[in-house]
Structure formats: structure tokens, C-alpha cells
Design brief:
Length: 352
């Protein structure tokens, strides 16, 4: 019996030392020290041995069991450490690498893309791009644009005031940059001004915050025909080479004469009817779509910057303002302006 105990001990010790994984080591523990293993069986049968053998066999079996338990514990610790190192090495992530699969890059918002397209057209016509403050003085937003205090036209642009005496407000249009640009540069001047504006409006075609593009051209000999030609070039670049523009009389405090500008419908080609004979839903059968307001700069506005070289008897010009969201809605068939600001990725990804 003692010889068999030694054989088991030697065999088990060699197997434990050679174990290559925690799973294999657990199998050896069950094989040599489990309830059905031979060595624990010897210990359970000690009482069946002759009295003179019980002490020797029991002592040898217990010694072998404790030795194997120690070997198992030591080998388990070594295997756990090596397996953890291997696991960490295999799972190491370089956070500077792109994901797998790489996450798609973002893209410019449709409003920003439309703004850039308009800017590109106007720069090609010889204009430069300027920007101005979104928090504006009453003087530039209203007074210097022929909206004196108490003028009823101020009510049409009810806005958000942030300070009184002097009045400071969120600008209602990008037109204040007309005066600011003329204060910084004498005539001739050809400038477009994109940016955010704020009004107390909110429905499918109006938002408390929206984007506008202001255009200003001042020089000697500029006429309403130059305005129409400029807007025709812009409309054809945005809506197609066959577009036409129409000017309708209107009123704006800072232009005289003032006009509303329509572009021929690009869905029905200005006929008011679709190919199947039904009424065009985009232009409501009119053949024209209103896109912006414009006019010749009022001499009263030039009077505020006369000391900078803008003599109304010598120079004149035109100004126009269009809603960038309005252009984007028309070009891409977006039915509700508020969709631009809902941050619904499903809607925005259509224009990636």
C-alpha cells in the first residue's frame, strides 16, 4: 500500500507541474483528490487495515494528500497570473485607433451646407463675406435702418431684449451689418452677411432662431436692374439654370423702392401644373415661389453713414435678405422648418 501511495504522489505531482491551464488543473484535482479518487479512498479504508499498518499507511496517505493540495494551490496561482496577463494582452485596446467597424464621420448640417453654397455663389459674383454680433444695439438693429423709436415697423420684428438704457437685444435680422460694414469701409462695397437671427415666432415656417443671409451693394450707378441680375444669378445657381425671377412691389423701412422676389417653380418649371396635370403642390399652382425681400437702399440709411463717404447724391445701391432655412426647405423638400433643429438623426442623415 505504501508503494502505491508513493506512485500516486509521484504521478500526480508530475501531472500538476505540467498542467497548462486552469481547466486542466481542475481535472487533475478531481482525478487525484476527488471523492472517487484512489488516494482519498485509501484514507477512507484505513480502518479495514491491520492495526500495525494503519499508522504508517494513514500517515503516508495524509502526507501525500497535503503535498498534492499544496502543489495544486501553487500551480493554480501561477496559472491564474499567466492567464490574466494573456487575457489583458489579448484584450488591450488602442483608444487612438478607429472603431471596428469605424464609426462613420459626421457631416455638415444641411443649413450650414446651404449657407456655404450661397456664400460660394456670392463670392463668385465679387462679394466678400462678413460676420457681426448676434447681440446688437437698438441703434444698429432699428434706428440706423430707418426704424426710429415708435416706428410701427418695429412691431413686425418683436424680439428679445437683454438690456435697457441703452437697449440691447438679440438681433432680428442680419441687416445691422449693413451700417457696421459701411462704417468700416467706404464705397464701393459688396458684402454678404450670414448668421443667426432671433424673433418671437414659432410654427412650421418660423422659428425663434433662424439663419439669414444679408446682401449689400453700394456704388455709383447701381440700379434695380443690377439687383434683379444678381438675384437671377443666385437663383439659377441654387435652383437650376432655367429659373427666372419676378419682382413685386412691397414695403421695407430700410429700402425704397422695396420688392418681394419670387423664383419660377423648379418642380413644375413655372407652369403651375405637374406632369400628370395636377396642381403643383410646391408653388400651389402659381408657378412662382417667394424666396426673399429686397430693394434699393433708402437714402435715410445712407444718411447715418454719410461721414464715411456714402453721399446719397453720389452713390446708391441695393440690399436683400433671404432665409437660409427657407432655401434649404425648398431645395430638399423639407416640410417643416423645425425639423432642422429637432436633432433627429434619421432626418439629418438623409443629407449626408
Amino acid at each position: 500500500m505504501l508503494e502505491r501511495i508513493e506512485e500516486i504522489r509521484t504521478e500526480a505531482a508530475a501531472a500538476i507541474e505540467a498542467a497548462g491551464s486552469s481547466e486542466e488543473l481542475e481535472g487533475l484535482r478531481v482525478r487525484y483528490l476527488g471523492r472517487k479518487a484512489e488516494l482519498p479512498g485509501v484514507l477512507r479504508k484505513i480502518s479495514e487495515l491491520p492495526a500495525e499498518e494503519r499508522g504508517k499507511v494513514g500517515g503516508a496517505a495524509n502526507k501525500a494528500r497535503k503535498e498534492l493540495e499544496g502543489l495544486l494551490e501553487g500551480r493554480a496561482a501561477a496559472l491564474d497570473a499567466s492567464e490574466l496577463d494573456a487575457h489583458l494582452a489579448a484584450d488591450r485596446v488602442d483608444v487612438t485607433l478607429p472603431g471596428a467597424p469605424p464609426h462613420p464621420l459626421g457631416h455638415a448640417h444641411l443649413v450650414a451646407r446651404t449657407q456655404r453654397q450661397i456664400e460660394d455663389v456670392m463670392v463668385g459674383l465679387g462679394y466678400f463675406v462678413a460676420e457681426g454680433p448676434e447681440i446688437e444695439h437698438d441703434y444698429y438693429n432699428f434706428t440706423a435702418l430707418n426704424h426710429p423709436p415708435g416706428h410701427p415697423a418695429r412691431m413686425l420684428q418683436d424680439t428679445f431684449y437683454v438690456q435697457s438704457r441703452p437697449d440691447v437685444l438679440l438681433r432680428t435680422h442680419t441687416s445691422p451689418m449693413q451700417v457696421r460694414a459701411m462704417e468700416n469701409q467706404g464705397p464701393p462695397i459688396f458684402v454678404v452677411v450670414p448668421g443667426k437671427v432671433y424673433r418671437r415666432d414659432s410654427d412650421a415656417t418660423h422659428s425663434p432662431m433662424f439663419h439669414q443671409m444679408e446682401g449689400l451693394a453700394i456704388a455709383e450707378g447701381i440700379t434695380l436692374a443690377d439687383l434683379k441680375g444678381t438675384l437671377l444669378a443666385l437663383s439659377r445657381a441654387l435652383f437650376g439654370a432655367s429659373r427666372e425671377v419676378r419682382l413685386r412691389p412691397h414695403y421695407f423701412p430700410f429700402t425704397e423702392p422695396s420688392v418681394e422676389v419670387d423664383v419660377s417653380c423648379f418642380q413644375c418649371d413655372g407652369t403651375g401644373r405637374l406632369a400628370d396635370g395636377s396642381r403643383c403642390n410646391l408653388c400651389k399652382g402659381q408657378g412662382w415661389i417667394e424666396i426673399l425681400g429686397a430693394g434699393m437702399v433708402d437714402p435715410n440709411v445712407l444718411g447715418f453713414v454719410e461721414r464715411y463717404g456714402y453721399d446719397a447724391e453720389r452713390v446708391q445701391g441695393f440690399a436683400f435678405g433671404l432665409g437660409i432655412e427657407r432655401v434649404a426647405m425648398l431645395r430638399h423638400g423639407v416640410p417643416d422648418l423645425r425639423r432642422f433643429f429637432d436633432n433627429d438623426v434619421r432626418m439629418l442623415e438623409q443629407f449626408a
